[in-house]
Amino acid sequence: MPSVTYDKATRLYPGGTKPAVDALDLQIEDGEFLVLVGPSGCGKSTSLRMLAGLEDVNGGAIRIGDRDVTHLPPKDRNIAMVFQNYALYPHMTVAENMGFALKIAGVNKAEIRAKVEEAAKILDLTQYLDRKPKALSGGQRQRVAMGRAIVREPQVFLMDEPLSNLDAKLRVSTRTQIASLQRRLGITTVYVTHDQVEALTMGDRVAVLKDGLLQQVDTPRNMYDKP
Ligand code: ADP
Ligand code: ADP
């Protein structure tokens, strides 16, 4: 069973003349890293936000596993999302930032500590757990934002241009880190970028959007072979 199904999912913004995302049909397999790519305004963020429950769906449906989530609020979708401006809480340490959602959810301290430590190990953040975000580099902060998302063990992980605030060199290394982290966790991931190189180097498959319409979905390898 696919992990995520867009079934003719459509978003027409109020006052819009044509849908920002038009009857999107797309299945994302369990554990897959799918990249949504295309120029600015093609509907990438809208597609992601519909899956997250942050944007109304005006036609069609969205399923996670066999659950129809089309009209469920974000908190009931078992999804975590990392944005480009990964706003960490400045007054909290890295560990507190990463454990915060679990604390709110009432998870006990020992369990939070164990999950935070495990995520920190995977993300190479162990030595920074007691620091405040301002004492970290941009790449480290980005990893804290990812850690904060994965400690909740979501079923689906969403990233919207997570590297756009990093400089070019850091972007390349963080790209590799995110891809290998995703493979280690095996978590179904939808990743939005306008950068074709990023899409082709990171994705198991790449979905190309243009003017709200899905143009092509294929593996990077097949895309190179038949451009
Ligand atoms: P992308 O992420 O590919 O840049 P978006 O999903 O943000 O594209 O936008 C797709 C289309 O929807 C664009 O034409 C954009 O102007 C329009 N759009 C996005 N957000 C809104 C909104 N809140 N209200 C009206 N139109 C919007
Ligand atoms: P509070 O006492 O207000 O809950 P804590 O200082 O205990 O705040 O930290 C908040 C959360 O972050 C706690 O749930 C704790 O388990 C976790 N935490 C704090 N420091 C560490 C650390 N060094 N390693 C792993 N987890 C930590």
UniProtKB/TrEMBL annotation:
GO molecular-function term, one example from the UniProt record: ATP binding
Keywords assigned by UniProt, alphabetized: ATP-binding, Nucleotide-binding, Transport
Protein's name according to its UniProt entry: ABC transporter ATP-binding protein
UniProt entry tagged with the keyword DNA damage: no
Nucleotide-binding recorded as keyword: yes
Residue span(s) of domain ABC transporter: 4-227
